[in-house]
Amino acid sequence: MSAMATPYIVFVCACAILGGLLVLRHRLALQTNGISLYVNDTGLPMDSVQIGNGQMIGTRPEQDDYFASQTTSVGTLAVLADGISGLDHGRMASTLAVTTFMKDYEQVQEYRQIPDYMEEAAFASNREIVQQLKGNHGGTTLAAVVLTGRHLYWGAVGDSIITIFRNSSFIPVNSMHTFGAAVLQQKVLSGEMTRQQADSSPQRKQLVNYLGYEGFDHMEICDTPFVLRPGDKVLLCSDGIYDALTEVELEAILKAELTPQDAADRIIESIQQKQLKHQDNATVIIMEHGVSGR
């Protein structure tokens, strides 16, 4: 090795050490701010996920909605269940369903397992609820999402909704498992009844699929993950949210420069201000990807 090459090698080594120290400093700074960065099995950085939530009991005698979230190296899971207020044991059903989804998620090791996890957790929840009911009536809707990288995996049963707020518009994700969506819509399309008759039918909101139902046979699960864009907001809402606020009212809140938690608080405050006579339990979860402090 020539004497002239020695200073060059020393310079390169010094640059490498300095670069490593800068990366380490950046990671420590992120940890200090409460942000955890992972790289998932897709090889894409997961970045940070901010979650906000809000809930109110409304005019119901008890709170039948239940929700939870957790983050692992696979991604961030959020689950919302709306116990059926018209049936007994709604609170038990929603709590048991969410708890089961949370517990089973801890066994998920990679993103490829997420769809199977959703299906297995749904059937496990249904079995547990039916067993606990011991022949009594009860049940719950459920919406679950896993955000990993820019990919959103989801599953739903019942009428709790998952929607994406993008560029001042809502992108619906799941279907409504109600009599109105499953049966009345077909009657309108076939000409058996008018749209006005379908919208005014007392059966339109009757659930045809939910957890705690002995005839439960499937959970709607995404075939492929939804690809998120920067600025997208993911919302999970029980019917107490979307029955109380219009899309225009929700849009005005979500367009404001608010953190997910502030937006969730604003949504609940807006419903409370209406003082609706028959306000249902209301719960909202808002997730935003790649936001690191405002």
Automatic annotation (TrEMBL):
- CDD domains assigned: PP2Cc
Keywords associated with the record: Membrane, Transmembrane, Transmembrane helix
Which superkingdom, per the lineage? Bacteria
Q: Which Gene3D superfamilies match?
A: PPM-type phosphatase domain (3.60.40.10)
Q: Where is the PPM-type phosphatase domain?
A: 50-289
The record's section on InterPro entries has: PPM-type-like_dom_sf (IPR036457), PPM-type_phosphatase-like_dom (IPR001932)
Segments passing through the bilayer: 6-24
Give one Pfam hit by family name: PP2C_2
Q: Does the entry feature the keyword Membrane, yes or no? A: yes
Protein's recorded name: Serine/threonine protein phosphatase PrpC
Question: Which species is this record about?
Answer: Paenibacillus hunanensis
